[in-house]
Structures
1.
Amino acid sequence: MDLYDFIESNEARDVKLLQLLLTAGTHGCSYSRLLESLQVTPSTLAATVASLQQRLQAFDEAAQIRQCNEGKGRRLFLETQKPVLFDDLYRKLLRQSKEYQILATLLEKGKCRVDEFVAQLYMSKAAVFRKIKQLNLGLKSHAIKIKNGTLTGSEVEIRYLYYQLVLNSYDSEELAALAATFSARRYIKRFEARSKVKFSPHGEIKLCVWLDIALKRHFTGDKKFTGIPEETLHQLEVNPLYHMIRNWLFEIAKQYALALDEFEVYNIYIFVCSMDIIDFSATDPRHVEKYLALALPTVQQRNQYFMAALRQICAGFETQCSDASRIRMQYTLNQLHHRIQFFQGDFRLLAQPSDRVSINDQQLQHLETLASELTAIVAKDDPCCAAPAKRLFLTQHYVRLLMVTHVQIAKPIRIGLLLNDDWLATSAVMARLKLALAGMCSVVLEIAEAPATYDLLITSFKMSSAAIAAKYHYQINEIETTYDIDQIKSLLVSIIREQAAISSQF
C-alpha cells in the first residue's frame, strides 16, 4: 500500500513537495527536479507551492517557500522558525481524506450503506462509489475488498489494516492518550507478571490498540473468515505461551461477560509473537530466551537458517556482539519471522524513527547486499516466502535489523598521524582530515604512538612507521603542500568493507 493511497491527488502533491524540500535541506531543491518529480507544469507547481505554504503556516506562521535564482540556478528553499515534521502534515491530511473516513468507518462499524456515506461525507453516490473503487485498488494486493458495504477478506488481515491505520493516524502522544482510556489496560500488568517480561511503553500502547480493535471487530467482523490453519492449531495445543494467553484472555472476558472463541486467543497470540513490544532494559534476558524457545517450529527453522547463514557470511561477528545485543537481534528476528507467517502485508505508511539509523551510503550498500543474500537463503523452499512481495518484505526488514545491530556494535576507524615531529603541521592536517572525512564514517584521529594499533597510519616520507602497527599506511610526501584525500578515502572504504564496523565483514 502506497503512502499516498488515502489522500486526495492535490494534497498528495503538497506532501510530495514537502518531502522533497525537507530532504534537500538548506541546499534547496532545483526547480527542474521539482517539475520532474511531481510531474506537473510550472503553473501547477506554483499553485502547489502556494498551497503547501498555506498549510505549513498552520504549524508555523513564519513558514515560507523561498525561490532563489543565483548560483546553481533556480532553486526552492523551505524556511521555518519552528521544526516542520512531514508526519504532522501527513496525519492531518490523512484524517481529513474521504478514503480514510470510508475505510475507518467500515473497520469500526463492520458495515455501512452507501446512503450513510453520502450523508456523512456530503458526497454524491457516484463520488462515493469512485472512492470505494480507488480504495479497492489499494487493498487488492492484500486480498481485502469493500463489497456490499462491508470489508471482505481474512479477518486477521482486516484487523492488521485497522491496526496500521490507527498507528499512522495519530502521533505518539495521541496514541498514549487513547491507550490510557482503554479499560482493560490493567490486565496487561497481569500478563507481564505471568510471562515475566516487561512491555515497553510503545509496546504497551501497541497491545492496547490491538486489544481495542479485537474487541470492536469481535462484534462487527464476519466470522466466516476467522479460521485457524489446522497445522498451526495443532502446534499451539502444546504451546505454553498460547495457553497462558488463553487463560489471561478468558479472565478478561469473564470480567466483562464476553463470550470469546478460539480465534480471539489466536488473534492475540499472533500479535504478541509478531510485534516488537518487549522492554529489554526491564526484562531479564533469560526470560526472553525462554520465550524464544517457544517459537513455532517453522519460525525456529527460519531463525536458524538466518543465523547460520550470517555466521558463514560474516565469520566471527558474534565476538563483537554483546549477549544483550545478540538476544535483542534474535528477538527481533523471531518477531519478523512470525510476522511473515501470520500476516500477508505491510501496511505501514510512515517510517518510524527507529528506521532512521546513522549510516553512510557505503555501509548501507554493503548491508543491503548482505540482506539480499540472507533472504535468498532463508526463503529457499519456504512456501510462506514464495511470493516476491514477501521476499522484498524480508529483505527490507533484514536491512533494518542489520543497521540496528551495526550501530550497536560499530567501532570507529582509528587513524594515527605521525608527521616528522612537526606538531603545528600535524594539527593542521588533523583538522583538515576531520573536516574532509566528516560523514563518511566514524573516525578517531590521534597522534600515533607505540604500542597502539591503528586501522590507518598516515606518515611523512621522512618518518619511519615500522615501530607502530597498522593495517593500512598512507605516506604524505609534501606535508607543506597537498595530499590525496581521495586515496585516503579509498583506503577507508577498504577498511569499511573489511570490518564494515560489524565484526570483520558484518
2.
Amino acid sequence: LTNIVSTGVKWYILLLFMNEAASELGLEFIAGILQQVLRLLPEWLFGGLMIGGALVLGHWAQEKITESKLLFGAIGGRIIYFVIVYFAIVLSLPKFGFQNTEILVDTFKLLAGGLSAGLAIAVGIAFGSALKDPAKKILDDMFK
C-alpha cells in the first residue's frame, strides 16, 4: 500500500513540475492538458476510493447478513451488496465527469417502488390466507 501511495505522489509531483516547465517554455497547449489532468486527478482518485469503499462495505454487509442465517439471508445479502455498490457508482459518476445521473436515480426509485409493492402484495396475500378462518369467525360473530 505504501508503495502505491508513494508512486502516486511521485507521479503527481512529476506532473506538477512538467506543467510548470511547459508553462515556462511557452508550450501552452501541453501546459493546458497537464493542468486539466492535475485538476481531474484528485476527483478521479476520490471517485475510485468511493467505489472501492463501497465494494468493501457491501461485501462486509453481505457476509454479515448471510452469516445471520435469516430466512432468505443469502438473497438479502446480495441485494444489499448491489444497492450499496449501485449507490456508490451513481454518487461517484460526477467525479468522473458524468454530470447528469438523474436517470440512474429514477431507475433505482422505480425498482425499489416495484419491489416494495410486490413484497406488500405478497405479505398481504400470505396474511390473508393464514387468517382466513379467524377472520371468517370474527365477521360471522359481528353480523349475527
3.
Amino acid sequence: MSFFEKASRYAGLMMRGEPALLKELRETTVRELRYDDMLSGPVVGRFLNMLVRISGARSVLEIGTFTGYASLWMATALPPDGMLVTCETNEKYARIARRFFERYRNEMTEESCTDQKTPHTDAVHTDQKTPHSDAIHTIADPNRHGHGRRAEIRLCMGPALETPWPDQIDFVFLDADKEHYPDYYERVMPRLAPGGLLVVDNAFWGGKVWGCSSDLQTHAADVPEASGVHGGERKTRDQDVPADQKAAAIDRLNRMIAEDENVENVILTVRDGLHLVRKIR
C-alpha cells in the first residue's frame, strides 16, 4: 500500500462516521456497477459537505451525478430553502441515484419527528433538450436526525451543456466527462456568484496531466506515478475518448483557472486532485 493510500485510509478513520444510508449507497455502487472508482468517497464527500456549509451556499450545481453519493453529501449542508441541481446522462446511474434520493427523503422524514412531510413531485421542463427531471425534497444533515432541515434535489437527465441551469449559483462541483471540462468552466463562471466556489475533481487524472506540462517535462523523474484510487489505469465511463485527450482537457482547464484574474485557486492533493476555485469578481 502506497503512502497516499495509507493517508487516505487514515483520513477516513479520523473523521465522523459515514452515515448508514450513504455507506449503503457506496456499497451498492461498488456491487452493481463496473465504474465504482468514479465514487467521490467518504473523505471527499465530507469535504464537499463542509465547503457548502462553511460557504453558506443556497444553490448548488453538480455536473455529473453518477449514483448520487456526492449529491447527498452536498444537499445535507444546504439550508431549508436551498436547491441542488445535478446533471447526469446515464440512465443506469440515475436509477440508483433516484432510489437513494427517495429513500433518504422518506427515512429522514420519518426520523425527523415532524409533520412537515414533503411529497415527491416531478419538475416538468418544456425545454426539449432536457427530456426528464426529478425534483425530490430531502432532509439535510444525515448526522443531525430530528432537526428537520430540508433541501430540494433536482436530477436533470441529458447533456449538462444543454441543460438549463440556475441564473446564479453559489457552489459548483464538476465531475463529469473530462474532455468538456474547459467548456463547463466557460459556462459556469458567468453564473457563479462573486465569492462562490467551484470544485473540480480529477485535477491530476491519475498523473496523466504531468505529461501535458512542459514545466514538468524536465523533472519527470521526480513526479510519482499515481496508482489505485489515485489514478493509474482508471476505469471510466467515456472509454471512447482517448486518455491523452482527457488529460489534455484537464490540463487546459487547470491552466485556464491559474491564468484567470477573476478567481483565486488551489489544487489539493486529495485522491486524484481537487481543484478549489473561488470567484473574486
4.
Amino acid sequence: MAAPTQSSPLRRWKRFFRAFDSVDAAIKPSDPDHSRGELRRARVDIVEQLCDAADDDQAERLCKILDDHMAESLETLRLVPVMPDLLVSTDLGKSVCALRRHESERVRVLARGLVSGWRASMQDELTKVRDALHKLDNINMPQTKEIAVDQQQQHVSVDSGIVVKTVGISKKASPAGDRAGLCSEEKMEAAKRKLCQGYQEAEDAKRLRHSWCRRPR
C-alpha cells in the first residue's frame, strides 16, 4: 500500500475521518435497517483504494466519493433529533464544527446549517427553562400554620387588687385542618423540588450554550 504524499488528497480527509464515526453513532438509533454498517464498509474500501491510487486524478475521484458519503450522512443527520446532552457527552458537535472548514462546499454548507440549527435549538431550550423558573419564583409558598396553640394568660387588676387568672384553652385543629396542613406542606415540597430541578436545567443549558459560543464559527 502506497504511503500518502504531502500533496495526496488523502491528507485532505485525514483529519475528518473521525467525523464519520460520530455522525454514524448519532444516526444509528434512528436506523432500523442497520445500513450504517454497510456504508462504513464501503468507506473502508474507498480509503484503501485511495491509498493505492495510481495518479492524482483517480485519487481526486475517490475523494469526491468520500465527500458525497459525508454529505449524505449530514443530510440524514438533519432529520435526526439531537439532544443537547448528546452534544456535550460525545464528539458529535466538535466533529461537525470541524467540517465547516472542509474543502467540499456541499459538506461545509451542511455542517454550518447543522451547527446553526443546534445553537438555535439550545437557545429555545434555555428560554423555556428561564420562563419556567420565572413562574416558579412567582409561586406563593403556603405558610405553615400551627395546628395546636397552647396559651396561658394572666390578667392582674391593679385597681381592685384582685388577680384574675385565666387559663387559655388549647386550640386544636380539626381533622380537615390536619389534612389541609399536610397538603400545603406537600405542595411546598413539590414546588421546591421543581425549583431546584429548574435551576439545574438552566445551569446545564447555559453551560452548553457557552461551550458552543466559544467555538469558532
